[in-house]
Amino acid sequence: xxxxxxxxxxxxxxxxxxxxxxxxxxxxxxxxxxxxxxxxxxxxxxxxxxxxxxxxxxxxxxxxxxxxxxxxxxxxxxxxxxxxxxxxxxxxxxxxxxxxxxxxxxxxxxxxxxxxxxxxxxxxxxxxxxxxxxxxxxxxxxxxxxxxxxxxxxxxxxx
Amino acid sequence: xxxxxxxxxxxxxxxxxxxxxxxxxxxxxxxxxxxxxxxxxxxxxxxxxxxxxxxxxxxxxxxxxxxxxxxxxxxxxxxxxxxxxxxxxxxxxxxxxxxxxxxxxxxxxxxxxxxxxxxxxxxxxxxxxxxxxxxxxxxxxxxxxxxxxxxxxxxxxxxxxxxxxxxxxxxxxxxxxxxxxxxxxxxxxxxxxxxxxxxxxxxxxxxxxxxxxxxxxxxxxxxxxxxxxxxxxxxxxxxxxxxxxxxxxxxxxxxxxxxxxxxxxxxxxxxxxxxxxxxxxxxxxxxxxxxxxxxxxxxxxxxxxxxxxxxxxxxxxxxxxxxxxxxxxxxxxxxxxxxxxxxxxxxxxxxxxxxxxxxxxxxxxxxxxxxxxxxxxxxxxxxxxxxxxxxxxxxxxxxxxxxxxxxxxxxxxxxxxxxxxxxxxxxxxxxxxxxxxxxxxxxxxxxxxxxxxxxxxxxxxxxxxxxxxxxxxxxxxxxxxxxxxxxxxxxxxxxxxxxxxxxxxxxxxxxxxxxxxxxxxxxxxxxxxxxxxxxxxxxxxxxxxxxxxxxxxxxxxxxxxxxxxxxxxxxxxxxxxxxxxxxxxxxxxxxxxxxxxxxxxxxxxxxxxxxxxxxxxxxxxxxxxxxxxxxxxxxxxxxxxxxxxxxxxxxxxxxxxxxxxxxxxxxxxxxxxxxxxxxxxxxxxxxxxxxxxxxxxxxxxxxxxxxxxxxxxxxxxxxxxxxxxxxxxxxxxxxxxxxxxxxxxxxxxxxxxxxxxxxxxxxxxxxxxxxxxxxxxxxxxxxxxxxxxxxxx
Lengths: 159, 793
Fold this sequence. Notes:
- The complex is a heterodimer of chains A (159) and B (793).
- Chain A is of the alpha+beta class and 159 residues long.
- Chain A has two domains: 75 residues, Roll (Ubiquitin-like (UB roll)), CATH 3.10.20.30; 72 residues, Orthogonal Bundle (DNA polymerase, domain 1).
- Helix content of chain A is 35%, strand content 16%.
- Chain A has a five-stranded mixed β-sheet, sandwiched between helices.
- In chain A, a hairpin with a 2-residue loop joins strand 3 and strand 4.
- In chain A, helix 2 packs across helix 5.
- Chain A is globular and about 50 Å long.
- The termini of chain A are far apart.
- Chain B is α+β, with helices and mostly antiparallel strands and 793 residues long.
- Chain B folds into three domains: 163 residues, Aldehyde Oxidoreductase, domain 4 (2-Layer Sandwich), CATH 3.30.365.10; 192 residues, Alpha-Beta Complex (Aldehyde Oxidoreductase, domain 3); 244 residues, Aldehyde Oxidoreductase, domain 4 (2-Layer Sandwich), CATH 3.30.365.10.
């Protein structure tokens, strides 16, 4: 049995018939053909699959595609404004907040959520805010610096 | 400007594709007509397979094929072990790609399904009925070596028995009379004895492993996209296992999401994926799940170490004697025999003058995942032994651990120092590193604070770790002598295009370390082009020259040297051409910052871009000069390189709960001149945290029946952002005397030092509570129980 879903990914509407069990991450990777969203585990621990659903972060490996029916999904590919990188993308680059890059899409979108709910977090708040995302390369230190840098850059731009 | 780019922390050129989701990892490869494989892994750790019924799976929706061990017979050779440790009675057990008669760990593949979608392939796995006759299991390496242990393998690949599950017995011994040293210490000095369990660890590269195989029947050509640290080694061994000749076999390591050693080995599942593609004539993708990664991708460490240290009453070490039982898992993985031996035992002198030592290492088969290199690979286990025993010696003699280290350090040296294990260290200043660390951290003040006693039930602990490590693997002649079935040189091709833009082709295969950036910096600093004008190609065996891979902190140390020397060849040729164009003799030419000019006339210079154009059009070359501006170098290092440093961990232990908090960490590392200090610091951060993970949280555990009970990220505790303090990273610079750039390696240093630093800190905190020994990781329960036991005694 398949059910119809309408999901907008990065501004583009995808209407597909899907199995009810299809995970959103696989809808994004297979049907929307956007492979920036990663699958790093199968128990919802690593956070590599983090996307925004109607602007709020979610782990797309534990969301069914049918649950996102009618939603606007933003993936890492949809974060930049054309050629202009998002402040978080710039700061992860500037502060060496990534090494192998596999956790990075999820880490950036989780950081997006963190800054959405707390525009100027302390180091401690950043560390707690990102506890649901695992990075094995960086030891997190430069990720914390990157998020802080993005917060400051965004605050400066808003002035 | 460009010549100063060596040492500049420029942003990584890898990052734009990674921060936008534009990078292509193996999982992201999609090919026309591609089908998906899934592997059925054994549900038992040790059992005889009595029957496999695949009929229901074969007719399930979307299923294209189901294969078992019987299907691959003759088509896939056993997975080879490629480190044939000499003088060790090495017994290599057959390592089948699909188990046919007996399974020996829960990662053994018993069947493979190919289906139109990954979901259909997974569904069909559940429909395969495997009947097992369970056999007794053993996962502890010491118990596996015992007389009453179940025997895993009937015969090795040569038809010999494998008594006691012993894969090898390797010994290192050197220096003076060890027995006399211990007799003297027993009589007039001190002998420290300890048992250390270096627990099994799961590497956890964030990208799971996978393979995409595309076999073209018409041509007999195979392309394999693979999550590997060493595509050329995969090509070599894939050819051996699958029979596809090397000239028709192309291996591509696309974007690779970390490895930490777990992507060195060649794996059964990858070869099965190749087999499926060859048999079906369609592209086949296989990507492991994370649970499967835990179940079947190589683990690290797993040593039971019994150590004895002899010393004088004033803290001078006189001898070291150890026995190690190293769990190898069910089969010998690709490089496995060299890890607990060559990379461990030869480093047992550490930063110290040890007059005599001996170590026996028993590699033992167990019903676990094969054990391979894991960040540090043998060296953390050696550093830990020494650093722990030295702290115990300090406790015994009531001396400060820093003082005991100072009494035993090898004095500063600039150009070679031979230690008791016969290694010739290149350069180092171990006392200087410790002194600088102590001064920088205010160590004495922390000791004073500690003397004031616990605060709110929290005990302060300080842990030092002085280390030297061996990396930049290594001279190929040595590789041959120690049984490594390959060379350890690296190569680079540097090609200048007419506009002065540069392509570099390297054999090494970075997978997150940032060498696309650091290598561009090497080229820029050697010949004055802009780093942005240099593109680095790696990871594709069809377009890059042979290379032996990225592990052992060797990519910059060995590959970087090859690259620098190739660029110097270009510079030499460019100088000859510039002299010709300026109608001067070569001896009168000077070079600075990308410009070639007659001495004293820098205003009439030919730039490297001018030369690139003139070399490529070849209108006016000196007689005998070939057209083009391109050079190839094969660099075989004359020796290893030996980075070193000293780390300090500061912890607080809550005596009422057993909770350990890492409150501070300072690392001083010396990897020689730093090409990109920001990247170096990043490597140190990541390395430290992995080592901290071993001390505080991580550990793979098997139950009595050989089931992995830490089988997912829910059960295996990885370091998280909120558990860590801000790390303080400082450095000194000691050049390697034999390296063209003076550089050493930095990829593993953090991990090599940090586990023992944190362990020593926790034990230091627990000292007033009478706790003598706790096995890693320091979970609150273990610490709390140790405190209660100490109270009871």
